[in-house]
Write a structure and sequence with these properties.
extended; about 65% helix; about 675 residues; 3 strands
Length: about 675
Amino acid sequence: MHQPHLSFAFLHSHDVKEAIPTLRALLALLPALVALAYGIVRPKPQTPPRRAGALDKWRSALASLAVVLLVARSVVGKGQVAALTAAGAAGVLGLLANEEAVLGLGEAWPTRMAWLCVAGASGWDLARSHDTVDKWLSAIAFTITASSAIAYALFNAAARRKPINEEGYALLEEEDESPEDAAGPASTGVFAWMSPLLAKGYARPLEARDLFPLIREDDPDAVASRLRHSLQSKPKLVKALIAAFGPHFFVGGLYKLVYDSTQLLVPVLLNRFLKVLGKNDTQAYKIAGLMVANAILATLLLHQYFQRTYRTGMRLKSAAISLVFDKALVARRQAETDEDQEKGAKKQALVTNLMSVDAQRLQDNMTYMFSIVSGIYQIVVTMYLLYGQLGYAAFGGLGVMLIFLPVTQRIVLLTRDYQKVVLQYKDKRIKLQTEALGGMKIVKLYGWEDPLGSELKRLREKELSALWHYKLAGVFSRCVFAVVPTVVAVGTFSLYVLTGHELTVSRVYTTLALFNVLRFPLMMVPRAISSAVEALLSVDRIAHFLDAPEVSKLPSESSDDCALYLDNAHIRWPGTSNNVQGAPLLRRVTASIKKGSLCAILGETGAGKSGLLSALLGECDVTSGQLGVFGRIAYCAQSAWIQNASLRENILFGASYDKKRYQETIRRCALRDDFKALA
């Protein structure tokens, strides 16, 4: 008895061609139906509808264009059923994406996979198209559907889909969170997370409040804490900096090495392209496509490298400023002998330079620091490729480079020496300016304006002279570095021709392309070495300051009635930087001060009143006996200072404003004339 059975056309080899349109239709239709079913049963938030953002509108426009093109292909070209099915699937997916944007939902994985299937079906149609019009329509449809799939499946817009602001862009859950924190790999790769900021900048000029907050890893507290933690295990500052910020920097270095490889691939592809040009058009088009893809990949890699190096430099600067500032608060004052007088007197100028000049130099020099490694890699590979093109004649160019190597090294050393001189004179000038501004009243009373101005002018002229030589050396180095590749090319071609070889078009263009690649590392490696030397010099200056002695930590205990005590304490002035003990200050001091009491220390000039207060701050050495405090200390020095606040707030000093008392205080302090002068 004959048994009935189901028979599907695509199970038989002779009907496979007839089943292909059905398969293409199912490839686009089934995932779209799954995505639609998930969109229907997906929980919806109980929030009012919102406006779509710029990225959402862009996605909707791409989906609409894909529907139009697929419908046009179904009318003009072949495979009407498959094209109409793909058009319907694209329309459904576009509506789902728009609903997600309006409701504030994140991208759904079924919808992502469905978009990829629609793009795959369009690519399948393109591969099987033969008619010219049908092929062009299929190519355009595939481009649009693939763009829609990339825009939806890769770019992470869910990170900006929480609350909605007045411009129509969604924000993150936390106000102090950056969209970069939640950006996906593709969004990070092409900086798509900046789309709201760019759209806002296109609509109107950007303001400071429009900028995104820093990412968590760039928070100054987090950056400084990371370096402090590294210093605990690696006391040397250079190693601590590498341990704290090296991984992020070296990942960028890997991007740079891959980018360099793409640059080295250009001459190879160019050589192949010139050889097949006019002989094999199909192969030429493929190579041209590879060159375009290689250029796009190179652009993505280079921007990732720069983003990471700039970010590393910013972190280095922030961490260095934090550490220098913290150290300045606890650094001990040292006695000034004839040998240490200059070092001790210029502490404030040194701190200013460390926080402004040296920290900034760390940031600036990180951009091309990795060029030392990548440049050597480019030079080695380029010379290998040149040897493949020109044989032993390529070593003529290597000989020219070796001739210029001592010259470039000498220029680097000369530039470093001039930089040291510039920093020395800058330290002296800032130190003198700081002393003059701090003691302006004395300068005016004694009429020291002219000699002080002459000394400042003399230091400034020496600084400018050293700066002129430093910049002149930099200009000369740039000229030498720019001339080297040309001299190398001329020497190499001359040697190749003199050895009896003939230059062909492909060989000449390929060699020139290789020399063009060689130009950048030859110019940047010496500059990168110079930048590394400058950065190490700045690190050494910061490390030397961080190694300075700190104030002594006094024993702090809990007590019900005692604020501080001295028990037979012998106190000395701070020692010098050569570990020489300071002069004796006080001997056998015994005292106990209760909490809440007002205590005044009386004595003639030089009796040790200020020295005793310095001892309570830990800035003097207690050689024997005991000295302890209970609680915290607030210290107001004798030198004039002012809060970073208004004049009224400085007078009130935290007290509530009482107009009658405030006016009486101004009268008793004879400040009315000063107020008139400031008005």
